[in-house]
């Protein structure tokens, strides 16, 4: 995989040269942002409120959230769970303004301050998730799926930070989009779990086993919660003309074959 660089070295100049987006496209983008924001805020509030109602043992007795998987774990793991929940919820909310070009233009200082806080929350949330990983409810699939998510999450955040420190705005924006796509796994995890439980209900009989339905659904969620997000993120990055990943053709000599030049303004 290599990254495709924009044809113009100055991303701002390129965007100034591009024609303005149509009214329909702007309305679609705003509607998508509103849906994204509502979903992110809802999951952040639900996560915080659920685990703030009592100890993990108390929540496990009420079968609330995933408390039963961590109620008997050592204090370190339980503490890491709370840190992961808090950091992830903050990242879900703090990452939203970072996606808005209008907000970035109107409040550049606020964008920088909030961006640092967001990237810090991502790093803390990812590290905490590695601590709780062995106790996850999906077993070995969860170790690999959620483990990959954690490494990609903190890795993309680090790439975004390094890019902006170099003054590379285009790559910074691309990596921030990827980072938030992985952050949004907190939303898609719950969405996929609900959908996969729902599709099992017609064949589950008149008295379905809720635990069995959840276990079946959760078995694939560790990968399903973030893989489609990454695909959508790359589509958005290409659509915006940002540096995107693309497969290269490797010649028999082991070197990448040259790619045709990308016309100016091409997606």
From TrEMBL:
Classification via InterPro entries: DUF2306_membrane
Keyword Transmembrane helix on entry: yes
Keyword rRNA-binding: no
Designated name of the protein: DUF2306 domain-containing protein
Superkingdom of the organism of origin: Bacteria
Keyword field: Membrane, Transmembrane, Transmembrane helix
Transmembrane regions: 31-52, 81-101, 113-133, 139-158, 179-201, 213-237
Chain spans, region Disordered: 1-24
Source organism of this protein record: Cellulomonas gelida
């Amino acid at each position: 995989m290599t990254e495709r660089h924009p044809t113009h070295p100055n991303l701002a100049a390129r965007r100034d040269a591009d024609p303005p987006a149509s009214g329909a496209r702007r309305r679609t983008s705003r509607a998508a942002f509103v849906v994204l924001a509502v979903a992110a805020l809802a999951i952040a509030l639900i996560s915080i409120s659920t685990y703030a109602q009592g100890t993990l043992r108390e929540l496990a007795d009420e079968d609330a959230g995933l408390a039963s998987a961590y109620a008997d774990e050592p204090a370190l793991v339980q503490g890491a769970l709370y840190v992961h929940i808090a950091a992830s919820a903050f990242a879900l909310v703090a990452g939203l303004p970072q996606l808005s070009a209008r907000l970035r233009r109107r409040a550049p200082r606020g964008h920088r301050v909030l961006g640092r806080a967001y990237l810090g929350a991502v790093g803390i949330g990812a590290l905490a998730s590695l601590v709780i990983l062995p106790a996850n409810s999906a077993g070995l699939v969860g170790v690999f799926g959620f483990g990959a998510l954690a490494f990609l999450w903190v890795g993309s955040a680090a790439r975004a930070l390094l890019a902006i420190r170099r003054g590379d705005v285009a790559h910074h924006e691309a990596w921030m989009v990827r980072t938030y796509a992985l952050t949004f796994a907190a939303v898609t995890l719950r969405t996929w779990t609900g959908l996969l439980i729902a599709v099992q209900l017609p064949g589950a009989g008149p008295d379905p086993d809720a635990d069995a339905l959840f276990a079946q659904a959760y078995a694939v969620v560790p990968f399903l919660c973030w893989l489609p997000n990454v695909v959508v993120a790359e589509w958005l990055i290409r659509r915006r003309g940002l540096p995107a990943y693309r497969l290269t053709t490797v010649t028999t000599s082991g070197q990448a074959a040259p790619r045709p030049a990308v016309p100016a303004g091409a997606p």
